[in-house]
Design goal:
The structure is a single chain. By secondary structure, the chain is α+β, with helices and mostly antiparallel strands. It has one domain (7-160): Gcn5-related N-acetyltransferase (GNAT) (Aminopeptidase, 3-Layer(aba) Sandwich). It is built from five helices and seven strands, in the order βααβββαβαββα. The protein has a seven-stranded mixed β-sheet, sandwiched between helices. β3 (59-70) and β4 (73-83) form a beta hairpin. The radius of gyration is 15 Å and the shape is globular. Bound molecules: coenzyme A.
Length: 162
Amino acid sequence: MKDEVEFVIKGVEIGDLKALHRLELECFGRDAYSELVLKLLLMDSRSIALKAITGGGSIAGFVIGRLERVEGRPVGRIYTISVDPLFRKRGVAKALMRRLEDELAARGCVEAVLEVAVDNYPALKLYESLGFEFTGILRNYYGPGRHAYRARKTLSESIIRS
Ligand SMILES: CC(C)(COP(=O)(O)OP(=O)(O)OC[C@H]1O[C@@H](n2cnc3c(N)ncnc32)[C@H](O)[C@@H]1OP(=O)(O)O)[C@@H](O)C(=O)NCCC(=O)NCCS
Protein backbone atom coordinates (compact mmCIF):
# COMPACT_ATOMS: atom_id res chain seq x y z
CA MET A 1 0.00 0.00 0.00
CA LYS A 2 1.33 3.44 -0.90
CA ASP A 3 1.27 6.35 1.54
CA GLU A 4 -2.16 7.79 2.21
CA VAL A 5 -2.89 10.77 -0.04
CA GLU A 6 -4.19 13.98 1.53
CA PHE A 7 -7.62 14.73 0.16
CA VAL A 8 -10.94 16.22 1.16
CA ILE A 9 -14.38 15.05 0.10
CA LYS A 10 -16.81 17.60 -1.30
CA GLY A 11 -20.06 17.64 -3.22
CA VAL A 12 -19.73 17.58 -7.01
CA GLU A 13 -20.78 20.70 -8.90
CA ILE A 14 -22.15 20.76 -12.43
CA GLY A 15 -18.98 22.60 -13.50
CA ASP A 16 -17.05 19.38 -12.69
CA LEU A 17 -18.93 17.50 -15.42
CA LYS A 18 -16.18 17.46 -18.06
CA ALA A 19 -13.44 16.50 -15.58
CA LEU A 20 -15.64 13.73 -14.21
CA HIS A 21 -16.39 12.44 -17.68
CA ARG A 22 -12.65 12.38 -18.54
CA LEU A 23 -12.00 10.32 -15.42
CA GLU A 24 -14.96 8.04 -16.12
CA LEU A 25 -13.58 7.40 -19.63
CA GLU A 26 -10.12 6.71 -18.30
CA CYS A 27 -11.51 4.24 -15.76
CA PHE A 28 -14.17 2.44 -17.83
CA GLY A 29 -13.22 2.91 -21.49
CA ARG A 30 -16.02 1.62 -23.74
CA ASP A 31 -18.20 0.94 -20.69
CA ALA A 32 -18.02 4.57 -19.47
CA TYR A 33 -21.21 6.53 -18.98
CA SER A 34 -21.58 9.24 -21.60
CA GLU A 35 -21.26 12.89 -20.60
CA LEU A 36 -25.03 13.22 -21.06
CA VAL A 37 -25.82 10.33 -18.72
CA LEU A 38 -23.44 11.77 -16.11
CA LYS A 39 -25.07 15.18 -16.51
CA LEU A 40 -28.55 13.71 -16.05
CA LEU A 41 -27.38 11.87 -12.95
CA LEU A 42 -25.81 15.03 -11.51
CA MET A 43 -28.94 17.07 -12.17
CA ASP A 44 -31.25 14.49 -10.57
CA SER A 45 -32.33 15.70 -7.13
CA ARG A 46 -32.24 12.08 -5.87
CA SER A 47 -28.53 11.81 -6.67
CA ILE A 48 -25.63 12.24 -4.28
CA ALA A 49 -22.34 12.95 -6.08
CA LEU A 50 -19.08 13.34 -4.19
CA LYS A 51 -15.53 14.07 -5.28
CA ALA A 52 -12.16 13.66 -3.56
CA ILE A 53 -9.93 16.70 -4.05
CA THR A 54 -6.17 16.52 -3.47
CA GLY A 55 -4.15 19.25 -1.81
CA GLY A 56 -3.09 20.31 -5.30
CA GLY A 57 -6.72 20.76 -6.36
CA SER A 58 -6.99 17.69 -8.64
CA ILE A 59 -10.04 15.46 -8.64
CA ALA A 60 -8.62 12.16 -7.37
CA GLY A 61 -11.93 10.35 -7.67
CA PHE A 62 -15.70 10.59 -7.58
CA VAL A 63 -18.77 8.55 -6.78
CA ILE A 64 -22.42 8.91 -7.72
CA GLY A 65 -25.30 7.22 -5.93
CA ARG A 66 -29.03 7.76 -6.16
CA LEU A 67 -31.96 7.26 -3.80
CA GLU A 68 -34.39 4.78 -5.35
CA ARG A 69 -37.23 2.53 -4.22
CA VAL A 70 -36.87 -1.22 -4.54
CA GLU A 71 -39.94 -3.23 -3.60
CA GLY A 72 -41.20 -0.20 -1.68
CA ARG A 73 -38.02 0.24 0.36
CA PRO A 74 -35.68 3.26 0.11
CA VAL A 75 -32.42 1.98 -1.33
CA GLY A 76 -29.24 3.75 -2.46
CA ARG A 77 -27.97 2.54 -5.82
CA ILE A 78 -24.29 3.14 -6.54
CA TYR A 79 -23.98 4.13 -10.20
CA THR A 80 -20.28 4.75 -10.62
CA ILE A 81 -17.06 5.15 -8.72
CA SER A 82 -13.80 6.13 -10.39
CA VAL A 83 -10.39 6.89 -8.93
CA ASP A 84 -7.59 8.42 -10.98
CA PRO A 85 -4.90 5.74 -11.51
CA LEU A 86 -2.36 8.19 -10.00
CA PHE A 87 -4.18 8.06 -6.65
CA ARG A 88 -5.26 4.43 -6.40
CA LYS A 89 -4.75 2.10 -3.43
CA ARG A 90 -4.53 5.03 -1.03
CA GLY A 91 -8.00 4.91 0.47
CA VAL A 92 -9.72 7.39 -1.87
CA ALA A 93 -12.51 5.02 -3.00
CA LYS A 94 -13.14 3.75 0.50
CA ALA A 95 -13.47 7.28 1.85
CA LEU A 96 -15.84 8.26 -0.98
CA MET A 97 -17.99 5.17 -0.44
CA ARG A 98 -18.15 5.63 3.31
CA ARG A 99 -19.26 9.24 2.95
CA LEU A 100 -21.84 8.22 0.35
CA GLU A 101 -23.17 5.45 2.59
CA ASP A 102 -23.53 7.95 5.44
CA GLU A 103 -25.35 10.45 3.25
CA LEU A 104 -27.67 7.78 1.86
CA ALA A 105 -28.42 6.52 5.37
CA ALA A 106 -29.06 10.07 6.56
CA ARG A 107 -31.64 10.40 3.79
CA GLY A 108 -33.42 7.25 4.95
CA CYS A 109 -31.88 4.52 2.83
CA VAL A 110 -31.78 1.17 4.59
CA GLU A 111 -29.59 -0.54 2.05
CA ALA A 112 -27.01 0.18 -0.65
CA VAL A 113 -26.96 -1.90 -3.83
CA LEU A 114 -24.60 -2.12 -6.78
CA GLU A 115 -23.41 -4.31 -9.59
CA VAL A 116 -19.77 -5.16 -10.24
CA ALA A 117 -18.07 -7.17 -12.99
CA VAL A 118 -17.03 -10.61 -11.75
CA ASP A 119 -13.44 -10.01 -12.96
CA ASN A 120 -13.00 -6.49 -11.52
CA TYR A 121 -10.67 -7.54 -8.73
CA PRO A 122 -9.88 -4.05 -7.29
CA ALA A 123 -13.59 -3.21 -7.11
CA LEU A 124 -14.46 -6.59 -5.56
CA LYS A 125 -11.81 -5.98 -2.89
CA LEU A 126 -13.13 -2.47 -2.29
CA TYR A 127 -16.73 -3.63 -1.75
CA GLU A 128 -15.64 -6.63 0.30
CA SER A 129 -13.59 -4.36 2.56
CA LEU A 130 -16.66 -2.15 3.06
CA GLY A 131 -18.81 -5.13 4.09
CA PHE A 132 -20.91 -5.60 0.97
CA GLU A 133 -22.37 -9.09 0.44
CA PHE A 134 -22.41 -10.59 -3.03
CA THR A 135 -25.91 -11.93 -3.41
CA GLY A 136 -26.22 -13.21 -6.96
CA ILE A 137 -24.82 -13.29 -10.45
CA LEU A 138 -26.27 -11.33 -13.35
CA ARG A 139 -25.28 -13.23 -16.46
CA ASN A 140 -24.25 -11.16 -19.51
CA TYR A 141 -24.99 -7.96 -17.56
CA TYR A 142 -22.22 -5.98 -19.31
CA GLY A 143 -22.58 -7.78 -22.67
CA PRO A 144 -22.21 -11.34 -23.94
CA GLY A 145 -20.03 -13.38 -21.57
CA ARG A 146 -19.45 -10.36 -19.28
CA HIS A 147 -21.15 -11.25 -16.02
CA ALA A 148 -21.72 -9.16 -12.89
CA TYR A 149 -22.30 -9.81 -9.23
CA ARG A 150 -25.14 -8.05 -7.51
CA ALA A 151 -24.02 -6.74 -4.11
CA ARG A 152 -25.81 -5.22 -1.14
CA LYS A 153 -25.10 -3.73 2.24
CA THR A 154 -27.35 -2.79 5.16
CA LEU A 155 -26.80 0.88 5.95
CA SER A 156 -28.14 1.18 9.48
CA GLU A 157 -24.69 0.82 11.09
CA SER A 158 -23.23 3.53 8.88
CA ILE A 159 -25.17 6.18 10.76
CA ILE A 160 -23.61 5.11 14.05
CA ARG A 161 -20.05 5.25 12.68
CA SER A 162 -18.33 8.52 13.53
C1 LIG B 1 -12.00 0.10 -7.83
C2 LIG B 1 -11.38 1.46 -7.52
C3 LIG B 1 -12.51 2.50 -7.44
C4 LIG B 1 -10.66 1.37 -6.15
O1 LIG B 1 -10.18 2.68 -5.84
P1 LIG B 1 -9.00 2.91 -4.79
O2 LIG B 1 -9.05 4.32 -4.35
O3 LIG B 1 -7.73 2.42 -5.38
O4 LIG B 1 -9.42 1.94 -3.58
P2 LIG B 1 -8.98 2.08 -2.04
O5 LIG B 1 -7.55 2.52 -1.99
O6 LIG B 1 -9.96 2.91 -1.31
O7 LIG B 1 -9.02 0.58 -1.56
C5 LIG B 1 -10.18 0.03 -0.90
C6 LIG B 1 -9.89 -1.42 -0.55
O8 LIG B 1 -9.77 -2.20 -1.76
C7 LIG B 1 -8.47 -2.80 -1.84
N1 LIG B 1 -7.97 -2.65 -3.21
C8 LIG B 1 -8.14 -1.59 -4.02
N2 LIG B 1 -7.50 -1.81 -5.19
C9 LIG B 1 -6.94 -3.04 -5.08
C10 LIG B 1 -6.15 -3.84 -5.95
N3 LIG B 1 -5.79 -3.40 -7.16
N4 LIG B 1 -5.76 -5.06 -5.54
C11 LIG B 1 -6.10 -5.53 -4.32
N5 LIG B 1 -6.85 -4.81 -3.42
C12 LIG B 1 -7.25 -3.60 -3.81
C13 LIG B 1 -7.60 -1.99 -0.90
O9 LIG B 1 -6.53 -2.75 -0.41
C14 LIG B 1 -8.57 -1.60 0.20
O10 LIG B 1 -8.77 -2.67 1.09
P3 LIG B 1 -8.39 -2.51 2.66
O11 LIG B 1 -9.06 -1.24 3.14
O12 LIG B 1 -8.96 -3.76 3.27
O13 LIG B 1 -6.90 -2.41 2.69
C15 LIG B 1 -10.33 1.87 -8.59
O14 LIG B 1 -9.45 0.79 -8.82
C16 LIG B 1 -10.94 2.30 -9.93
O15 LIG B 1 -11.26 3.47 -10.13
N6 LIG B 1 -11.11 1.33 -10.85
C17 LIG B 1 -11.69 1.63 -12.17
C18 LIG B 1 -13.17 1.95 -12.06
C19 LIG B 1 -13.95 0.80 -11.41
O16 LIG B 1 -13.70 -0.37 -11.68
N7 LIG B 1 -14.92 1.19 -10.55
C20 LIG B 1 -15.76 0.20 -9.87
C21 LIG B 1 -16.86 -0.22 -10.77
S1 LIG B 1 -17.99 -1.36 -9.97
